[in-house]
Structure formats: structure tokens, C-alpha cells
Design a protein that fits this description.
The protein is of the alpha+beta class. The chain has a domain at about 1-110: Aminopeptidase (3-Layer(aba) Sandwich), CATH 3.40.630. Helices cover about 30% and strands about 35% of the residues. Strands 1-2-3-4-5-7-6 form a 7-stranded mixed sheet, sandwiched between helices. A hairpin with a 2-residue loop joins strand 6 and strand 7 (about 150-155). Helix 1 packs antiparallel against helix 2 (about 25-40). The longest helix is centred in the first third of the chain and has 16 residues, at about 25-40. The chain is globular. The mean pLDDT is about 95.
Length: about 160
């Protein structure tokens, strides 16, 4: 497995990957694709970075979308991390996160924030963050809709 930048040939596979997780709403799939299209369409923009984990045939296994948080010194947002349902549990997500952490370090990053939902379908995401050294730092009750809290996780990274 290698980690490489997003390329236009990845687009359709990533779209299917986001849908096939069975976790994301149609609106969330739309937002994920907007960000993929933004990165593909404007290589000069600096707000969003997307890296793909790829197999030996250069086919995407997962991707991570992240970027610097405006008006912070060293803050980074992890917007999306999606792994193909056929390879979940094989450390693809961990490798993508490690890649992001290293890229953030190179940019003098000091923390990564990740938001997720409190509903049962997001329990795997919550466990993923906690297992990888994130701590819950905020929870906003009923943020997405009644009964669906927004949970913010933070991981401090060292230079």
C-alpha cells in the first residue's frame, strides 16, 4: 500500500466508496464529492488536501481530506477519512491518519481536530479516533438533529 495525492481517475471509485460505507447521508455524499471536485479542479488551493491509499495496482483503498484551520497557528481539521468497505480493519485508515499527522508536522502543526456524530452508525469512527490518541474535547447536544450530537476530538501532535 502507498499513500499518494488524489488524481482525477480516483473520483468515481471514491464516490462509490463513500456511498458503500452505508454511513453517510445523500447530503454528506454530496459534500464529500464537492471537496473532491474542488481539489481536482484547483490544484493551487490550500484549504483542502486529499491523499489516497492505493494498492499495488494504484487503485484507491481509502482517502483522507484535511486542511489547516483558518486563523489558527498549527491547527488542522480532519474533514473526511473513508476506507473501502472491503478493506476495513486492515490498517488503511491508520496509515492515512499517520500520513496526515506527518504532513501536519511538516507544516508546524500542533493539533488535529475531527468532528463526528453520536449516532450508532458512527461508533466505529468514534472508536477509531480514541484508539489513535484523540480525546473528546467537545460535544454539542442535538447539533445535527435532535438526538444526534456533534462530537469533537482533538489530538495534539509533536514536532
Amino acid at each position: 500500500m502507498k499513500i499518494r495525492p488524489l488524481i482525477s481517475e480516483d473520483r468515481e471509485k471514491l464516490r462509490r466508496m463513500v456511498i458503500e460505507t452505508g454511513v453517510f447521508t445523500d447530503e454528506e455524499v454530496h459534500v464529500a464529492m464537492e471537496l473532491i471536485d474542488l481539489v481536482l479542479g484547483d490544484q493551487g488551493q490550500k484549504d483542502y488536501q486529499i491523499a489516497c491509499a492505493a494498492d499495488d495496482h494504484d487503485r484507491p483503498l481509502g482517502y483522507i481530506c484535511y486542511g489547516p484551520i483558518p486563523m489558527t497557528v498549527g491547527g488542522f481539521d480532519l474533514y473526511w477519512i473513508v476506507v473501502d468497505s472491503g478493506v476495513q480493519g486492515r490498517k488503511v485508515g491508520s496509515e492515512l491518519l499517520s500520513y496526515m499527522e506527518e504532513e501536519a508536522r511538516r507544516s508546524k502543526g500542533r493539533m488535529i481536530l475531527a468532528d463526528t456524530s453520536s449516532i450508532p452508525s458512527y461508533e466505529k469512527a468514534q472508536a477509531f479516533y480514541l484508539k489513535r490518541g484523540f480525546q473528546e474535547v467537545a460535544r454539542i447536544a442535538d447539533y445535527y438533529w435532535e438526538g444526534n450530537d456533534r462530537i469533537t476530538y482533538c489530538k495534539k501532535i509533536k514536532a
